[in-house]
Amino acid sequence: MFLPFFLVLNLFAQDKGKVMPFQKIIIAIEQQHQVSFNYTEDLIAGLQCVPPKKSFSLDQKLHYLAQKTHLSFENIGNRFINIYKKENTAPLLCGYVFGAADHKPIENANISLPNGTQIATDFNGYFELGQGEVTAFGVSHVGFVSQKITSVHPDENCLQIFLEPEITELEEIRASAVLASGISKNTDGSFEIKPKKFGILPGLIEPDALQTMQQIPGVNSLDESVSSINVRGGTHDQNLFLWNGIRMFQTGHFFGLISVFNPNLAHTISIYKNGSSAFYGESVSSVVAISSTPETTEKNSFSAGINMINADVYGKYNLSKKSYIEISARKSITDFVETPTYKEYFNKVFQNTTITDFAQNQDVDYKSDKKFGFYDATLKYAQKIGSKDQIVLDLITIKDNLEVFQSATFYAINRSENNVLRQQNYGGNLSWKRNWNPFNTTKINIYNSTYELVGNQKTTNANQTVIQENTVNNNGFNVENNHTLTSKFSFNNGYQYNEIGITNLEQVTNPDFFRRVKDVLRTHALILEGKYNDTLSRLSLKAGARFNYIEKFQKYRVEPRLQVRYEISKSVSIELLGELKSQNSQQIIDLQKDYFGIEKRRWIISNNTTVPIQRSKQLSLNVFYKENDWLLDIENFYKKVNGITTSSQGFQNQLEFVRTTGDYEVLGTEFLIQKKINHFLTWFSYTYNKNNYHFPDYEYPTFPNNFELTHTLSWAAIYEKNNFKIALGTKWSSGRPKTAADLSQIDPSAPVLVYNKPNNTNLHIFSQVNLSATYKWETTNGIQYKAGLSILNILNRKNEISEYYRISSLTNSIEEVETFALQRTPNVSFRVSL
């Protein structure tokens, strides 16, 4: 007696939408409802359909089967059911639409007839075309490749149609392994770095985001600092740095020599030089967006590592199937040991500052000591709620602390002071994402970022204290909606609210002086953006606009963004990128000796007069070729930024104390050629740019930009096989502009600095050869080990990175002050992963 029961369970417990022989379906109905069907074998021979739901009543099941077949059902007393062929009706054309990848039914697929009529499939993927003979029709659905069905006759059994999934070109990677494994270029023109898949680059043994991006053509750092990255001639503060949606105002440890972003944490780093999404604001140069959220679920993991500068730990633990927590922490080891790497970093950072220039008066017994350290830590908590919602909390804290103890003995009196320089950035972001359905999603972010730079400097001989503080508090709220309208077109819209408050404090004793200035700016932005991609015509288009409103100035500004790509062939494509952007905050330098001369820049807010809102416009045309492991990328661009101030450009000549506004204009070309042969990869890049300032109110209205590098060349050779990786490369660039003093007009008895035209000459050529190598192995119990070695500036070349003039207080004469890049600098790392 249990056999019929299990037979029914077996038949009706099968996967939804699975087509079954009609005879098996009616046998199951007979067993469940205790009825008997009467029919001839030829009437149902070869007939198949999807079985009705088990929960249906007997009449509902008969009605369902009558709709899905060409049969009629006569119910006699709920005991006997006669099956007949429908009379006086034209045969139906029926079918089922499934996904080719998973064989699951596709609901709401469009069935298009030649006369323009359209019908949709039901939840089982079923459709029928009614009376009359139909020999051709189209089948389409969002996310699948459309099909045209021909030569079909209604007297056949129900069709089974399988649609192939359609790949959206705008989300594809145009080329993987650009410069190194783990680095790719996307179809929207952006570069994407996957640190966990990162191979190796010359001089790098860890996927440091800000060091890695300097290998991209058009991205430089004139002083080897990740706190001074120049993208197509812009200053560092003109770049937008985002960590999980949080704007970061501090990007470097050790005053710029190490990135604050833990290289073992990030999952995706996106870099836009031009054509960024309209959802990115507050920058007139590049966008660097770092995400530590994994794209897929990952298992529990733990790792720890150490190099000659810092040690770090990382851990991820799945609390449940729908939640996990992730923690990372990194701290300098300089508190305990001074390695050769630390000594080279120290000499580079502190040269020509008040720390190294402390003992200038030879008649006084000076002594100096220092204590330096840094750390960063992050926390992530992610929780899925049901099948449609996810909440993610991200927290980050960063701190650098320098203490300098100085003492002096004069007139038999000993005086000592403890000076402090502290820099820190805290941030938090709470995001909620909901997938309303496969075609519509919403994401909401609430974030805060707080930055603080504090300097407490005391002079032992003048008994003077100088306290300087620069604090930034940035709060925001973002809403982003994504809509997939068709397989070719999607539409995004959103709203962003941003509030930024900046406080600057200066306090001096002997003589007494106090000044505290706080400014707040609130902005609103409405974002609209559409994406179109047609695989047949090989055309991709992304266009958007950002509508900004600044409360304080009651100003509106529209900022369009554009990405157009056309594939001439499978190997060659051209791309046009353009954007208008603006920025309401910037970094300026009042005095080169501020904050010990180490960190001279402080954040301020635009006042729309003496400190204008910065505005940029940029256009670039790119030709891309990839075939047979060859890659060629040529990009020509034009960029102009209005509203810059002389105090934001770091002048150390006659413009250091001049306050005026203007713009800079860049015209350039970026070239990259790459070849891969088995395990060997080599590439060569060249960048040319002509970058000029325009200050109309100054006596020299046009002259070269401080950040102009007319010619830059890079080459690398990389070998990766199994677990061994090695990279050798060189960087070469023409010297940056400098202003020479006019020595012919200087009176030796009363020296006063007299300069030539700003940036009238250049420093010497910069040249550096770098090497790095890593090896990874795994034990039988699954523990992974990784060791790395890097050497910067193997040839120990003395590269000058800046030069300026000053009047010596000792000799009362003009002296030339030179600053140099890192000398030969080794580094060793070791990492353990579970």
Verbal overview:
The chain is mainly beta and 834 residues long. The chain has a 22-stranded antiparallel beta barrel.
Structure, briefly:
By secondary structure, this protein is mainly beta.
Backbone structural class? mainly beta
Sheet-strand content, in percent, reads over 45%
Largest β sheet strand count, sense and barrel closure: 22 strands, antiparallel, barrel
Q: DSSP helix count? A: 6
Mean pLDDT, all residues? 87
Radius of gyration: 34 Å
Oligomer: single chain
The percent range for helix content is: under 10%
Q: Any descriptors?
A:
834 residues, mainly beta, 22-stranded antiparallel barrel, 7-stranded mixed sheet, disordered N terminus
